Amino acid sequence: MSFFKRIAPALLAATILTGGFTTAQADEQHFPLQSYRVGPYAAGGTGFFGGFIDYLNLINTRDGGVNGVKLTWSEGETEYEVEKGVEVYQRLKSNPGIAAWNPLSVGIAYAMIDGITADKVPLITINHGRTDTTDGRVFPYVFPLLLNPYSETSGIVNYIASKEGGPDALKGKKIVVLYHGSPYGKETIPIYDLLAQKYGFELTQIEVPHPGNEQGAQWLQIRRERPDYVVLRGWGVMNPVALTTAQRNGFPVDHIIGNVWSNSEEDVTPAGDAAIGYTAITTQASGKEYPVLQEIIKTVYDAGQGNLSDPQRIGSVYHNLGIVNGILNVEAVRIAQEKFGHRTLTGDEVRWGFEHLQLSPERVKELGAENLFHSINVTWQNHEGEGYVTFQQWDGKKWNVVSDWIAPDWSLLRPIIEKSSEAYAAEKGITIRTQADVDEVVGQ
Amino acid sequence: MDWFTFLFAVEVAIGGLLSGVMYALVAIGFVLIYKTSGVLNFAQGAMVLFAALTFVSLTEMGLPFAGALVLTLLAMTLLGITVERAVLRPLANRSPMTLFMATLGLSYILEGLAQLLWGTQVHRLDLGISNDPFEVAGIFISTFDLVAAAIAGAMVAVLTAFFRFTRTGLAFRAVADDQFAALAVGLRLDRIWIAVWTAAGVVALVAGLLWGARLGVQFSLSLVVLKALPVLVLGGFDSVLGAIVAGLLIGATEKLAEVYLGPFVGGGIEGWFAYAVALVVLLVRPSGLFGQKLVERF
Amino acid sequence: MSLVTEFSATPLPPRENRLLAALPLVVILAVAYLAVPLLANEYLIEAILLPFLALSLAGLGLNLLTGYAGQVSLGSAAFMAVGAFAAFNFDLRLGLPLPASMLLAAVAAAAIGLVFGLPSLRLRGFYLAVSTLAAQFFVQWALNKFGWFSNGSASGIIAAPAIGIAGLPLSGPVGRYLFALVTVTAITFLLHRIVNGPQGVNLIAVRDNETAARVIGVPVLRTKLFAFALSSAIIGIAGVIWAFAYLRTVEPAGFNLDRSFQILFIVIIGGLATIRGAFLGAGLIVVFPLVLSRLTGLFFDGVADPGTIELLERIALGTVIILFLIAEPSGLSAILSRLKRRLAAPRAG
């Protein structure tokens, strides 16, 4: 049974390769996965795609799919490289019944935007991606669900404010942002500047060259600045090195706040004791006490079908992100099915589902994910969906939530986002969508 | 310049020198191989990863420190023998460029093998060295970096003694001086190559352990070679002493540049600044500070 | 009369041979220009032919420098990046037509190439090779650092404009393919002329013996710098194809050290100092991993996860590279020559 389950996607892929596949026989909804299980970011890739697959598996085994429509998937390894991602996209895009793409890589997502817009299939960039794709008026098929980089920035500043006793207390405080020397790292520079101006804190932003395995100079500068907080906008090996170097320079670790790509177990364990007390933002709590995780353990892992080779990683940050990503994808399909019928949907129909993906805290509880993540409220204009963030502290063994759910300052950021997306629309000659375009759906 | 800013500059310089030792540590592995076989071994980074990953996985399986060390050394010896048999011997007398490309191929194999055997997870490596700083006259010095420097120093001393006082070491030097003459007097080149690759493997292990304790043992460990390459160019590909001096020099200048020049251009200049330093020196001395003057062709 | 016939009779066989020799080229061009646009599916164009063309061109550029002039560079990807970003900015800021901005991009890449080629006047061998890494890291840093290059794009990744020439849109797969193909064909012919002309002789003289070259009056410094500039210009155009026709996004991270090594592999495996070597090498580098992944996928899928398969592929790729270097030091190009000779032999006998 287990073997058959494992081999099913392979058979599917083989059939496609040999060209024997013409139409979807049964009702199936397909998720092509551009995963990365090898290379520098393997830890994130195995966790995220593992969680995603585990959740799809749960829905198939427990519910027999979504209203009887089976969920299928196929994987292609990208090693986080753009051209491999493109190759996998080209290879898998002809699979029938594709619901959405979930590359978890900004570079790959960018290279696909033209393609998926022409195909009319949604592209999900949960917790990351191009910030201005939040504007659904310009990017109908791209969804940076839960949290875009700007909201993340605002969430972190709001958290520091809450720790200091309110936004007014930020005045005169000193914050250093230590960012990875890449487009990703630099993306939030103007937003931190903006918030510094608004709240009146002193701000220094320091770059760490890729890959970040040497940070002596940067932390000496930080020591000279004597900031109240250091925000870590890291990536991969930069994170543990930042923590150990901070310790070596006598900077208190509980005043370092990590961003969304500096918040996993893999980022802190290599730093050992230096990481105890480190706090980081997250959109989804870690741990396996949530009902949906318990069901995954019972239904999927106990049956030997779990995707993680190391069961210790169940409930880790990336695994839970993958599960939340699974919930959001599956619910978008479910919402679209209520409108279009319980059958294999087209990509455009699933897009409609994502544009109506509104999960209240009550609905999240029904899904067994209460406190795993807060809620989401996607509309055709707002493709991020107002995700809440929370903060977790590392105790040497696991992450513990140390804050309430915090709302970023969406209304402050929206005009900046619109300015950028409208510039893009003008540059590319895109007409800005209206309400009427939303319900114009390409069906079967 | 007041006292405080002066102290800060000293602190930056000391931090840089200690980082430089870490660069030199990786560079020495290159030097050993280049000196005796004229190969620029790009797989050195993969060897660092392989050694550290093997060691840390063995300790995680419950082996004591010494046991894991011995087993890893055995693995590195085995690697040396295999490389000699499967790569160096068939490629003898080929151009340095071909050998360089072969080591690139070797690095693919090693990276693949290391992760296939031990997984792609990030590991914590705790050598039991304190990471806390201590203070001397208002200057913070990292205990870990000092211990690392001491270990590196000890390793260089052992290597030097080995070259100077043992027969094998003498043979190394003979081969380095003149391969054909060494062959003519009956030295077994194959054995020397095995020995030298094993020695480079040992250096890779030491570098892997120290760097691994700083970074965590993970794929990015193989990227430390990028820090070692400018050191090699500056010090000369064939000089252990050159690697150390250049390591210190590059470590200190790059940190000082990052702190004092960086703000003017937006920071993050460490990635290429070391190469710029090396280039400037090379324009005066084309074979590095201590390298032998050789005319090479591909 | 008989004199004429005799005269015309003797040169005839060589001309026939020449025609015969040109036949494969004609067939290749016919397939590339006629069969592919008519028959190929999107996957073949987008995932195989476009990267193949871009990398072939980059390989051609590096081969000029490494194969013909004997100067090793580990910074090729940097020049691709310069080309891509320069073309983007010329297009954006001056609104020039595509061929013009491409030409200017080549000039920009050549200028940067000249600067980083200056050390070659003093340095040799690996010292020079490692020094070219300075270009690799500096260019990537500068493109990252100064938002102007990416037009202030927040994420630093920019969408390449849709391409078209003289109002003719070429943004579909076939259009982009033809654009890349025409560019590559034109540069290949140009390069063929150069390396077979007096400059080519100079390059080879410098490679084989610098001192001797100087003795017979070859301007060594000028020749070296010429090689750096022209090679960088060609690689820069390869960058334009990579960014505009293939990925359609431009980001500095795509032009990293791995890409530089990839291009070097193409040149070495394809065959140094041959034109066709770059194409053969690029074919191997692009197609081999795909074939390998299909094969391993067929055997191991379902048994091992895709990550493990990728690792097996990596090991296989490394092994093949080493085996290849052992078995065929002169590259794929030499294999092809031998094959041709063997095919020709029975006919001759």
TrEMBL record, chain A:
InterPro entries found in the cross-reference section: Leu-bd, Peripla_BP_I
Stretch forming the signal peptide: 1-26
Keyword Signal: yes
Residues of the Leucine-binding protein domain: 37-396
Entry keywords, A to Z: Signal
Stored SUPFAM superfamilies: Periplasmic binding protein-like I
Pfam families: Peripla_BP_6
UniProt keyword Signal present: yes
Stated family: Belongs to the leucine-binding protein family.
Protein name (record): ABC transporter substrate-binding protein
Organism phylogeny: Bacteria, Pseudomonadati, Pseudomonadota, Alphaproteobacteria, Rhodobacterales
Automatic annotation (TrEMBL), chain B:
GO cellular component: plasma membrane
Single annotated GO MF: transmembrane transporter activity
Membrane-spanning residues: 6-32, 39-59, 65-87, 99-118, 138-163, 192-211, 231-252, 259-284
CDD domains in the cross-refs: TM_PBP1_LivH_like
Cellular compartments annotated: Cell membrane
Signal peptide feature range: none
Main location group: membrane
One matching Pfam family: BPD_transp_2
Topology of the protein relative to the lipid bilayer: Multi-pass membrane protein
Keywords: Amino-acid transport, Cell membrane, Membrane, Transmembrane, Transmembrane helix, Transport
GO BP term (any one): amino acid transport
Keyword Oxidoreductase: no
Family that this chain belongs to: Belongs to the binding-protein-dependent transport system permease family. LivHM subfamily.
Protein name: Branched-chain amino acid ABC transporter permease
TrEMBL record, chain C:
CDD domains: TM_PBP1_LivM_like
Membrane topology listed for this record: Multi-pass membrane protein
PANTHER family from the UniProt entry: ABC TRANSPORTER PERMEASE PROTEIN, HIGH-AFFINITY BRANCHED-CHAIN AMINO ACID TRANSPORT SYSTEM PERMEASE
InterPro entries linked: ABC_transp_permease, LivM-like
Keywords assigned: Cell membrane, Membrane, Transmembrane, Transmembrane helix
Transmembrane segments: 20-39, 45-65, 72-90, 96-118, 125-143, 149-170, 177-195, 225-247, 263-292, 315-337
Location in the cell: Cell membrane
Organism listed in the record: Paragemmobacter straminiformis
Major location category of this protein: membrane
A Pfam cross-reference name: BPD_transp_2
GO cellular component, as recorded: plasma membrane
Protein name: Branched-chain amino acid ABC transporter permease
GO molecular function terms attached to this record: branched-chain amino acid transmembrane transporter activity
